[in-house]
Amino acid sequence: MANYSKNEAxxxxxxxLKGQWTTLVTPFDSNNKIDEIGLRKNITYTQSLGTKxxxxxxxxxxxxxxxxxxxxxxxxxxxxxxxxxxxxxSHISHTSMxxxxxxxxxxxxxxxxxxxxxxxxxxxxxxxxxxxxxxTLASHTNLAIMFYNSPQFNIVMSPQGLNKLCQIPNVVGxxxxxxxxxxxxxxxxxxxxxxxxxxPDEWIYRKAESLGFxxxxxFANTSDWRFDTPNNNNYVKFIDKASEGNIDWNxxxxxxxxxxDVSDKWWGYTVKKFGGALPLxxxxxWGELMGMASGGVRQPFSELTESEKEQIKSDISSVISLNNxxxxxxxxxxxxxxxxxxxxxxxxxxGNGHxxGNGHxxGLGSFSDARPTGFDSGMxxxxxxxxxxEALEAEKGGADVVDVKNxxxxxxxxxxPLIVKEVREIIPDEKHVSVTLGVVPNQPGTVAMATHAAAxxxxxxxxxxxxxxxxxxxxxxxxxxxxxxxxxxxxxxGSLFADNVLYEDGLDPECMVTLAKESGCDGWLIDTLTKDGxxxxxxxxxxxxxxxxxxxxxxxLSTALSGHLKLTDLDELARINPDIxxxxxxxxxxxxxxxxxxxxxxxxxxxELDKRKSGEIEVHDKPSTNSEEWNIIDGRGKTCAGVLAALxxxxxxxxxxxxxxxxxxxLNIYDVIVWAEEGNHEVVTKRTDADGSVRVLFKxxxxxxKESSK
Length: 710
What we know:
Blueprint: H1 9-16, E1 19-23, H2 36-47, E2 53-56, H3 68-82, E3 87-91, H4 97-109, E4 114-117, H5 127-140, E5 144-149, H6 159-165, E6 171-176, H7 181-191, E7 196-198, H8 203-211, E8 217-221, H9 223-227, H10 234-243, H11 249-255, H12 257-273, H13 280-289, H14 306-317, H15 334-338, E9 380-385, H16 388-396, E10 401-404, H17 417-426, E11 432-439, H18 444-456, E12 461-466, H19 471-484, E13 491-497, H20 512-519, E14 523-527, H21 536-539, H22 542-555, E15 558-561, H23 570-576, E16 580-583, H24 599-614, E17 630-634, H25 640-653, E18 658-663, H26 666-678, E19 682-688, E20 694-699, H27 701-708
Parallel strand pairs: 1-2, 1-8, 2-3, 3-4, 4-5, 5-6, 6-7, 9-10, 9-16, 10-11, 11-12, 12-13, 13-14, 14-15, 15-16, 17-18
Antiparallel strand pairs: 18-20, 19-20
């Protein structure tokens, strides 16, 4: 039971919110009623794993399917069974303020230690609404509050918004599950010295090491009771030590990684099968295999098939011991699984950037209680298409946004409305379909009519671009376009071209942020029109684009960059971190804009983009040299085969640049040196970092030969 005052809540949180906190499911009996005996059994079992606390009626607790009385019943059981020796938190998110406050009162009266709350998920669309909502709760209760930042609730708070929330006296921190690594990292850096910030996956500890912040609580996930047993609680041990700053990746790789890979594989598969919903069916079945009480799931969820369950069981039992589970004929779902992805280039990774070896893309990144990365706000891939066939290729390759335009009309124009209509009908609802109007005339009424038409076709967004226009005219056009979208869900995106400087009276692209803000746009795009081989970065430098994007994020504007971008531009783009990266030529079959979009090229670009998002390819800490650039291969936690393949591929693609391998395994270091000797690559330096990892810098053989021939 909480024994602090409202003004002492933050101090209490720093002292008590530590280590691994679990998430409890709500077990149901054969009559679809709450299984009280099963829930008590689960609590006792999870306590025995060494967890520091628990949350009930969370997303994984199916709070959305429980009546008000059922939520209180689960709270009563959890409070009673914790017996005051286990910290407990209740998720009280609701669309009704009255019911939310009622749940808060019940939690306080039954001995809960803290509350967790998310945005009211039906109508809240601005950060100010969320802040006011949480402020009302905070003024009503004396309990500490953790805010849950997740796209499940239809709004993701920015780091700046979370900072404001944490200034409310008894809001003690944030479960930051936005699925944007950049948002998580920026929140830790901005807010983490004032409030408890917890990102619910292990990748955050790598970032904590490199960026100098600390995460003292894993708040909260289901990995403890899915991975551990009382006599073999390796996950809880790892998290507890990591939360103290003692992060043992060798222990993780030896004791946890194999089962985490199985989890990532089936987590992503289950999310995809159920259209982006939480993998609750997987988690509940997994719990049954571990001896937990689960029962079925409530509608609209449905159960896994028997063949799926058997394959899950087979995969789990291949890495951990499952006792007293009847043997059944194993069914191989490899064909069914592989049909859900389009290319083996899209390899699943866990939160640390490790490949899981199963060849399937994990659409959820292995966070608990969250939606897939398709709803992520960071670094989504937009592919421009001209017809339905290209749209299907883009979707098949994994594009997050399919953008319909007409490259044959003037500089660039809009696709025919019938094409937009057909594309919208064939692309899944959870995917974005945008419409590019291209370079519009300086006629507010005409443009307003076109934007309204895009909205009637259910476009996710419509882009309005300007070349030769004075600022006030562009402002007027965008304001009228915004009015035309009132009452619709279509977003207005203002667009300027980086190469406007080539045109007489071209509107300066660097005024884009101000123009979008003053016109009421939902976001903006910077593109290019030139066909002479130059691209976005030839007109606006990385530092300036980063400044524009960061300023826009603080204003709540979405940001998109395009303009003859290639794979080689991805590091710069990742450092800028726009919400959307737009391409066409780079994903055509020959790299030629006049050739059709090819799904294989889309998948390759998407895969490389995701490597930057996950941190597998680090873009921020490249060392500088006095001459040639060098590229980094992070081999920590990877197999020797993976490291050597990555080095070989890097030198094959860029034989005239230095390449550096970061290694933590002595055997891998030896094999990498042998690889260099066999390939006549020069070892330039070999040094040991403070964390014990070894950096080996190579000069490729081709680079050596080129220099010697001069």
